[in-house]
Amino acid sequence: MCFATQLFGASDAYLGRPVTSIEFEPSPQPLSREQLLALLPVHIGDSLDSLLIRDAIQRLYATGEYAEVAVDAAAGAGGVRLTFVTKFNLFVGRVQVEGVPEPPTSQQLVVATQLQPGTGFSEGDLKAAVEHIKDAVLRNGFYQASIQSQRTIRPGTQNVDLDFQVAAGKRAKFDGITVQGTPERPLEKIVHDSGWRSLFGFFGWRQVTDNRMQSGVENVRRWYEKHDHLLAKVSLIGLPYHSDTNTVTPVLQIESGPAVEVQVDGAKLSKGKLRSILPIYQERTVDKDLLVEGTRDLASYLQSEGYTDARAEYTGEQDQGSTRLLTYLVVRGDRHRLVKLEIDGNRFFDDSTIQERMLLTPSSFRERRGRYSAEYAARDVATIRDLYRSNGFRDVQVTSAAIDDYHGRTADIAVVIHVLEGPQWKVASLDIQGVNDADRQPILAQLGSTQGQAYTDVSLANDRDSILDYYYNRGYPAAKFEFTAQLDEAAHTAALVYRVDPGARITVRNVVIAGLDRTRPDLVRKRILLQEGDPLSQNELTESQRRLYELGIFSRVDAVVQNLDGDEPAKTVLYSLGEARRYTLNFGFGAELGRIGGSTTSFDAPAGTTGFSPRVSFGVDRINLVGLGHTIGLQTRVSTLEQRVVFNYAIPQFEGNAKLSLQFTALFDRSHDIRTFSARREEGSVQLSQRMTKSTTFQYRLVYRDVTILGTPLITPELIPLLSQPVRVGVAGFSFVQDRRDDPIDAHRGSYTTIDLALAPIQLGSQTGYGRVLARNATYYRLTKNVVLARSLSFGMIERYAGLADIPLAERFFSGGASSQRAFPDNQAGPRDIGFPIGEKPTGFPIGGKALLINTVELRFPLFGRDIGGVLFNDIGNVYTDLSSINLRFRQRNLQDFDYGVQSIGFGIRYKTPVGPLRVDLSLSPNSPRFFGFQGTQEQLLFGGGTQTSQRISIFQFHISLGQAF
Question: Which pLDDT does position 75 carry in this prediction?
């Protein structure tokens, strides 16, 4: 800080004179004039004092907004005019690095600069950032890179946008490996393990990347670990670069060390099991602490396997030349089975509430010997104690006792958990001090330690967080909280006093948006909740960040308070954005296996046969179209059953409303998945989605659809004019979706409800006027910790009121398959072609229905370990001719009767995968439909010939798919 010579000359001519005016140069300042005058200790009318001036300069510096401050004093009418001459600090705004082929990504390079948006900026930071970028691109093989930097001060702000342009050059390649030390294996094997040369060397050496370099060293080291060289050291000690060939030769220092062999006396454990138990394998080193820790882990594992008295001891090591032998001694004792777990003394919590938090598990089909160890018992005692204490039982005592030879059986053990609850402490009174009347009720509504509630340390901590969050989100970042509790031991109550000091309120000075090149600024501004003059709320800061991320067009959204540590009454909020790539490509390969209706070329099986249908998919998306955040996409799928092209145009957060999204869709589909007919579908739709709550969504749509039947439908020719005409449909629809499942992929509790209403009026171009309702409700009940009862009910109906004489085939309900009625192959449920008139030329192919009712119940339970589960299921229902035909009758009256409740009972296996359960279902249907079906060729069907035979949907079905049935 400095003082102008005009103010402090040798004669101190201005001291003691009254201050007549206070000005600032330059005139536009980071803080408003009113804020600055309130900040300064010197005011108009005060006598000029050097100490006040010095204090004023210190306060300006404390704001963090100024790099230099000087004071100029000049004589004025009747006193002294003061002018504060300032130079502003600069702050990091947008940081952008371009010109480097991935890897590394642009975002990784931005992080490498170590420039944090909103923090102070200096020229030294810029030079350091260039060096950091150079180091990052060098590690990724760009040895010839050059870097240009450009800084731009954003007009009207103190923010500096920093752009780094990298001329990367060509990425270097590996050209070999130099090995030093004692590798004890051939160089070619080390080269193979590193992965730095392509498979079998056909394509030469690979390009250098940081990840490839690190993983190569790790792969070499991992070989030694797998071969028991836990003390092996592999390090990269050099990376010579050859500029003439643009290649590098990594230099590895390898010290293989002795092989470490673990011997366990007294128990037979596989090497794989030892690797999973002993910490020397996880830590990849051998030291005394890890060896001792291994004794506890061995004992704990054996105890969990039923050897409740198991003990382990590390007995030492032997040097056998190239091998280092580590020896453990295990005393297993007798093997036990935990047959009973009893909890007594608990009144406040029931047994199930306590048991779901415990590790101890009685024997069951899943765990034959149960799960017991002294360590588990100790953990459970602590868990139960914490549960009670968090509910006000400060004096609770929890003990456990194991009973050997339970009921006279030597191998059986029982565990009794005894709970002495003691009194429940409660809050006698709560006094909140330092809170104004406007804030008192909103704060009280969030507190858990109010009068009459349990008195716990957990509640006190939660109340503290709630109160501070309340003030933090209203612009009081320096809010403080403290409490006192006066305990009444006799009444087991506590009188609480909360003292709150909100501190100074901080507001938003302005909002700066940086990093927009293709995106329109208004799109971003509409989604930022904080505005100039608002209290600085952390919730609104992060909620705005979330809303920007939800647009799906930004790879990075940094939402920061600029100059966070500065002492100033108003802050600048900075949103520094990184725009994501505009184009995304996706490819997919898959297949459908199971009983697939219509998947074969034979006409001998109207109900379908076991088939295999490969699938290929391709898609491309273009995000942030014309800077509006819109997405345009094209998705294709080709298989032997279906060829589909879907064009989408999506507008997220429609009109800036985070709860609305608008989507336009055009679809072209050619399908063969129903034996009755093949169809070409051309469809256009517009849908508005409205998220009402976290679990509830409304959807409003208009659909125009044109379906053309391809070739000659394989049903009775007399039905073609009635059911198989080309269909033109205009539909106005509404959907209600409520998802309260705990896990949409594999639900254990909650519910899922959908209701779809559609009206196809003549006025919208429909050839057939009809209304349609399709509703589904699924609920999930957790019977025990691992057993779930799930049920689903689907109901649908179509009613015609105008236009064509009947509902065309393409608009009817078709069902059956892995995700509906498992008594049928795909789309094989419901009415079938029985000939017209009845008895004339039946084909037996499905023709769909105008009503649907299917109920499914599943019992889901663990089967083997933690990844394989089992399911017992019962499906009942069908697709029906019309609404009046719905019934759950068990027996089929005759070969023309399909309006009855087809039953399916079965067993399924679920294998847990990262993308959901892999599902195999085996179904038995004792009352599957019988019917007259056609046997012969397509030509015989169309031009006469062939035979009609009595056929039946196979009573056995199998389905393979991904995800639960519902």
Answer: 87
